[in-house]
Amino acid sequence: MNATTPEGLDAHLVVERGAFRIDLRLHVAPGETVALLGPNGAGKTTALRALAGLEALTDGHIALNGAVLDGAACSTVPPEDRRIGVVFQDYLLFPHLTAIDNVAFGPRRRGTGRAEARALASAWLDRVGLAGFGKRRPKQLSGGQAQRVALARALAADPALLLLDEPLAALDARTRLDTRAELHRHLAEHTGPAIVVTHDPVDALMLADRLVVVEDGRAVQEGDAESVTARPRTDYIARLVGLNLYRGKASGTAIRLDSGAVLTAAEALEGEAFAAFPPSAVALYRSEPDGSPRNTWEATVAGVHRHGDHLRVQLDGPLRAAADVTPAAAAQLGLEPGQRIWAAVKATEIRAYPA
Fold it and tell me: Which of 28, 149, 41 shows the shortest CA–CA distance to 98?
């Protein structure tokens, strides 16, 4: 790392703990918010803790605005000297301090006088909508209020990097909706890089400029929300965005899947490919359909459950898939587990893209 290191965050995080290993490269520009999205146990929080200096690197480096915080070429900068603001999942407010003193803690530690730090803290509480709450202790705050105090505490320290670990996970549905919108506003105003760790796709899509999907300690896909959701590359991402996803080898419009089944898409492609289609594209029939569907197969109903205004039907067979039908259609078909049924998807509904 040298003077040419770009502004923002540049990190290669390698952390080994027993059989678990993360190997993750992150580049976050000033003013950009990146969401680390993935299932529980993927390594998201470990990556965040490594950035904060709470988890030792096995290898790699962390550089922030050109200054190396950790790496083989320098001594590790301790957490308290990293100018990094962290909002933990459980907020971890100091229980013996009032809200205003929690927020003033960072500026005070950096040498700001008590009166000036409390004035700054009061201003931040006002900015997060908690004017008049300064004298309350954490146990006197609701979940949403505690989250906002934790955010104000992190921002009041003027962090060069902001890290948020599942910041909305502890909130009820209504509070989560309001707080998410408020958090988005504050992230948009933050001039440094920010990273949000979450397993909730809605939080990731609403809060972040870019998504990095982490599975088994490594990035499996990254990009803006549109590109990631339009072309998922793992089953986990496909489930998040509600798509049936398959991998195989394309030859023209035919895609021979790893399972041996063949799908026909509308557009021609050659080589390793993914094929995806939404459950709403799957039509179900009691008997083999007449007409022009290019992709038709006999399946077994593995399960039926409510999914919004529709019913989600899980299909087993040569092509395992999910299909969405209306309650009226399900009643007409008499759907129940174990039932044999025919499924069809039009070629125009199948999105094929290189693997």
Answer: 149
Task: With H, G, I as helix, E, B as strand and everything else as coil, classify residue 279.
Answer: helix
Residue 251, token pair as written in the block? 């030859």
Note the CATH number of domain 259-354: 2.40.50.100
| pLDDT of amino acid 3 | 42
Kindly tell me the sign of the dihedral angle through the C-alpha atoms of 290, 294, 298, 303.
negative
Q: How far apart are CA 306 and CA 320, in angstroms?
A: 19
Query: Cβ of 34: how many Cβ atoms within 10 Å?
Result: 23
Half-sphere exposure of 273 (CA within 13 A, CB side): 24
Domain 9-238: CATH architecture, name and number where available: 3-Layer(aba) Sandwich (3.40)
Q: Using one digit for the tens of pLDDT, what is the confidence trace for 192-242?
A: 999 999 988 888 988 999 999 999 999 999 999 888 988 999 999 998 888
Helices (H), the chain: 44-52, 99-109, 114-127, 143-156, 173-189, 201-207, 225-230, 235-241, 327-333
Which SS3 state, helix, strand or coil, does residue 276 take?
strand
pLDDT band of residue 2 (cuts 50, 70, 90) is very low
Where residue 157 falls among pLDDT bands split at 50, 70, 90? Answer: confident
Distance CA 13, CA 164 (A): 17
List where CATH 2.40.50.100 sits in the chain: 259-354
Question: Is residue 265 within 8 Å of 346, Cβ to Cβ?
Answer: no
Q: Are 78 and 29 in contact, with CB atoms under 8 Å apart? A: no
**CA-CA distance, 283 to 321, in Å (whole number)?**
11
Q: Nearest to residue 299, comparing CAs of 267, 352, 337?
A: 337
Q: 153 burial class (0-12, 13-18, 19+ CB within 10 angstroms)?
A: buried
For residues 29 and 263, give the distance between their C-alpha atoms in angstroms, rounded to a whole number.
Answer: 41
